[in-house]
Amino acid sequence: LYQDTLYVYSDDYNVNANSEYVGYVTSLLFSPLLKRHIAIAKIASGVAAAGARVFVEMEVLHRSQYFPAQITRLPFYNPARKTAVVE
Length: 87
Known about the structure:
By secondary structure, the protein is mainly β. It has strands at residues 13-17, 20-31, 36-43, 53-60, 63-70, 77-78, 83-84.
């Protein structure tokens, strides 16, 4: 979701699509396996299709910023094949 930052975030974050509130992030962390940030969010069913693009609203240094995100099916990692699912 975001890159090149060492800040730790602890609040829920709004998820927007087409300038409309569609849900919120419940968990956000950096995945060393995928080498990127991943999140789990509760999203409105009309927007929750895999591959859909949304924006996550986060406060960075006391300013709201929007970061692009893509909805992906769980799991992010496929242990049976021992390969990461990176889109």
